[in-house]
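Progress against Task 2.4 (sequence-to-structure conversion) is shown through the following example record, which the project officer requested during the mid-term review.
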Amino acid sequence: MPSAANEHSLGIILPHAGYVYSGACAALGLASVAGERWDSIIIVHPSHQGIHFDFSVSPFNEYESPLGNLMLDKELYRILSPAGEKELELDYHRLEHSLEIQLPLIKHFFPNATICPVMLGNQIPSVAQRLGALLYDAVYKSARRILIVVSSDLSHYHDSDTAEKMDAQLIRYVTELNPEGLWRGHDLGKLEACGIGGIATLLYMASQYRSPKVRVIDYTHSGKVSGMNNQVVGYLAAKIFE
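C-alpha cells generated for the chain above:
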C-alpha cells in the first residue's frame, strides 16, 4: 500500500523479530513509504542490553548487511548526539538486534539512503519527549527528506487472545496519537511493547505537526506463522503521515 501522492510520511513503526515471523509485516510497512524519496532514515530502537542511559546515537560510520553496506548520516549524528553525555560502550550498539534486523530491509527499499541509529535505554516519558522534540527539529528544519523508523515488537509471550487484546489497546492509542494514554496503558499492564519509548517518541514528534494522521498497515503475531498460540509476540506496521 504505497503512499498517496498528497501524503507526506513522517515515520513508521516496524517489528524487529526474526524474518520468518515478522518480516512480511515489516516489508509491508516499508513498502507503504517506498513511493516517497528519502535521503536519510533515523532508526529509533530499544536497547535489550541496558537501561542505564537515556539514548545514544550509534557512532559507526558504516553498517554491513547482506544486501550491501549502509553509511552513517554524520550530520544527523552531530545534531542528535546528546550534549555532554558520556559515550556508551560500543558493544551496546554492536550487539543490538532491534537495529540489525532493520538494515537489510532498509537497504532493499532505500538503497541510497544514509542512516542514523538512535538507541533508547531509559524508556520514560521525559526521555521520549526530549528525543521527539530533537527529531522534529532535525526533520522539520532540514531541506532533505528524513524518515523516522521506530523498531518495536508488541506484547510478549501471552496466549494469542490475550496478546491481540493487549495489542489492540496499543494500536488504539497510536491511531489516536495519544502518548499519554500509551504510557498509562503500559504502566497499568494493559499493553506491552519492548520499544514503547520509541513509539511514544514518534507520537510526541508527530504532535508538533499541523494535521498528523495514522494508518495501520499490518498487524500480526508469531502464532499465525508457528501455529503455537499459547505464547506469541505481537507485530505492528503503522505509519504517521500528513
